[in-house]
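Bit of a strange request maybe. I'm writing a small parser for structure token strings and I need a real example to test against, not something I typed by hand. Could someone generate the tokens for this chain?
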Amino acid sequence: MFPCGNIRWGTMPRRESGNHWRESDASEPEAVCEAPSSDAPSVAIRERTGALERFFVAPSERVLVRSTFVLTCTHGGVWALRAWGRVERESIDELVEVLSRLAERPERRQLFDLRGIETYSADAMAAVVDFYASHPRYASTIAREAVVRPDGLVGVFAEGFFRAVDVPFPTTVVTAEADALAFLGEPAGALAFEGWEIERASDVVWRVREAVVALGASARLDDVARALGTSGRSLQRGLAVEGTSFRSVRRDALADEIDRLRASQRWTLKEIAARLGFRSLGRLSELYREARGRAPSRG
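Reply from user aminoacidic:
Good idea to test on real output. This should exercise your parser:
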């Protein structure tokens, strides 16, 4: 139940390798994930975002990044999700929010790449079963589904689960991404754009991001370290190991939160500045420009 895609990691929660932000307005209407015209340029580097609304504006040009999975859409129209690490109940709760949105897209072809999964908790699997039982519309809007299973006992369990679930659409469980794409009618290179390789998600980066969003613009290194039960110096060392810094993580976390709030269309930019604790709209704009290379719109 997890799809896969291609990504350029840099902020959330991956190691930074430069900013490659596309200039687009999060308030524009959602796009349909479909094949572009034959002369349309391919997006070699995709924008990463943690904001669900922003992602669905242009899913074939962006990657939705969450704590244990990522989601994108190929230009051929395949929704691809890749998951990794330990799957706990909290991971499934986060996933359900995304899958519920996918249910709004009928005749979906989707791919779940589970090769990075290490273990499943009993609570997590119970939550998956409950989701299928309580959301019949989700399964009814799928046209075809391919699952790339991990190796070992985890893979045996995953394959058994997917084969045991009674679904109203063609499905397959394979061990190679190319086979999954072929089943979905996509060429082998459909997910071969730059940066799709997955590095292990950094728990320390993700936890710092969450703390920054909770504290808002007033978040400082010592405040976040206290919230995480460590010292500022230890936190700096941990972030340095991940190839980033507190300043960078703070900046990108706040910029993503600005995008998320803008996409909801419930607040003006001035109200968002106040909500996040910026001293002025100018301070918000300064941070956003540093993160995105452009000023936020005032819509």
